[in-house]
Amino acid sequence: MNRHIEAIHANPNLKICAVCDVDTEKAKAASDRLGVPWVCDFRELPETDIASVLTPSGMHPRHAAEVAEETAIPYILVEKPISLTVREAYELFSRVDRAGKTLLPVYQNRYNPLVVLMKELVESGKLGKLHQFVCNVFWNRNDDYFSGGWHGTRALDGGVLYTQASHYVDMVHYFFGDVVEHKGIGGSLRGLEVFDSVAATMNFTCGVVGTINATVSVYRTNYQTEFTLIAEKGTIRLSGTNLNEIEFWDVEGMEKPEMDFKIDHVYGKGHDTLYQYIAEDRWEMFPNRKDILSGIRLMEMLSY
């Protein structure tokens, strides 16, 4: 929630109209902090343009559908993942459609400057034939993170590929298209109901093969996020907190880009870009339905 608040406040053309939480104390605290009205029932939200659904992951499809059906709010922004299963995703889109509303999935890492650059390179054909990729998300979530809440539960969390690494699952799908073959092996090594560690191998319609390795069990603190692409005419390795650094660049006929990719926020600045697109009514910048359904299908195949 805090990241969304920061991004909205950073845009002079947007404002927060109200907050909603079933927990009265949390709703009041947010209201006092932001100086806006609070409600505990979403049906009592004031008339506004957009509702941002920022509830636990497994509740996203139900809450987004209900807001679409039972309020006059035309645009429903939903944090990742929009659902834990393809079936729920289809149902969500169907209910939003019947209500005459528009669903806006949050995949803000697509707006990361280096992700944009990689997408353009892949689509341009300048790298030639794509051979292999490796994506590693090695993070820490301590025991307190999983104690007494929805994190780590099968019903509401989904596991490391959904709650932590979903943006990187989406990223490889965004770059390479649909998966042809896949094999994911996961472990609930810390006694959770879901996988805290996953190793997945896959190949895509474009021919590239690759792996995603993800865990939340790194000792003490986040260790690494990295993406390496090996292609016929180049090798590129991205790293940093949110893939904001070019660690290795060897591309035929192309010098390493002289761009400043520094990100002064632990979660990156993708949410700022996302809300800028909202302010500009640039709805085409959000992932399309086919893309989202295919990405959810990939996470589900690798996680269950």
Poorly predicted parts? none
How is the largest sheet built, in terms of strand order?
Answer: 7-8-9-6-10-11-12
Determine and state the CATH class of the largest domain: Alpha Beta
Shape: globular
Number of helices: 10
Based on CA atoms alone, the radius of gyration comes out at: 20 Å
The number of domains: 2
Strand content: 15-25%
| CATH homologous superfamily assignment of the largest domain | Dihydrodipicolinate Reductase, domain 2
- Could you tell me the CATH topology label of the largest domain: Dihydrodipicolinate Reductase, domain 2
Q: Into which percent range does the helicity of residues fall?
A: 25-40%
Number of strands: 12
Distance between the termini: 28 Å
CATH architecture of the largest domain: 2-Layer Sandwich
Mean pLDDT: 93
Biggest beta sheet summary: 7 strands, mixed
Broad structural category: alpha/beta
Write down the secondary-structure element order: HEHEEHEHEHEHHHEEEEEEHH
Key features of this structure:
globular, 2 domains, alpha/beta, Dihydrodipicolinate Reductase, domain 2, three-stranded parallel sheet, seven-stranded mixed sheet, 304 residues, Rossmann fold, single chain
